[in-house]
Amino acid sequence: MDVTFSVNGERVSLDVEPRRTLADALREDCGLTGTHLGCEHGVCGACTVLVDGQPARACLMFGVQADGCSVTTVEGLEGEDGELHPLQEAFVEHHGLQCGFCTPGMLMSALHLLDTDPGAGRETIREEMSGNICRCTGYQGIVDAVEAAGAALRGDADGPSSS
Ligand code: FES
Ligand code: FES
Questions:
Q1: 125 CA distance to ligand 1 centroid (A)?
Q2: Domain that holds residue 129
Q3: Which of the four pLDDT bands, split at 50, 70 and 90, describes residue 156?
Q4: 46 Cα: distance to centroid of ligand 2 (angstroms)
Q5: Which ligand 1 atom sits closest to the C-alpha of 39?
């Protein structure tokens, strides 16, 4: 089936088999391998992307369902000059990753969270990120990173809020 959607702001037209997942379409047809596949049945969150601004499990969507949509993947976080997004910088700074397998999904969930709730405190971060599983970090560094990124994006020189 012919499918047209935008990925990270670029229009993409593909001939996609109806059974092909969005994750496979992104990884194999678009070459965007930053979207990782772990469980492939909607549990781990590694494949999280934004579809029309909402987090979606790319392993649970068919590629054809993205027709006409705007998809953002982890590659879309990169700045125009290749610089890291403040969320990526915060993950590095606060040890929010070890093997990095979960990281793309974590970043996309965190991006949506901070877009919708820029002042999210630690409890909100834990709650909203609970659909993303990490086998390495123990989560503390991830929460620290999202909290710090929120402060940076708000331009809060005093650092994270205590809420
Ligand atoms: S690979 Fe999609 S939720 Fe685990
Ligand atoms: S950093 Fe290894 S799974 Fe999260």
A1: 20
A2: 80-154
A3: confident
A4: 9
A5: 4
- Does residue 44's CB lie within 6 angstroms of at least one atom of ligand 1? yes
Ligand nearest to the CA of 23: 1
In a shared domain, residues 13 and 28: yes
Q: Ligand 2: which residue has its CA nearest to atom 2?
A: 99
Instruction: Kindly report the pTM of this predicted structure.
Output: 0.95
18 and 70 co-located in one domain: yes
Q: Which residues pair with 72 in a beta bridge?
A: 50
Residue 51 forms beta bridges with which residues?
54, 71
Contact 77, 36 (CB under 8 A): no
| pLDDT tens, residue by residue, 51-76 | 999 999 999 999 999 999 999 999 99
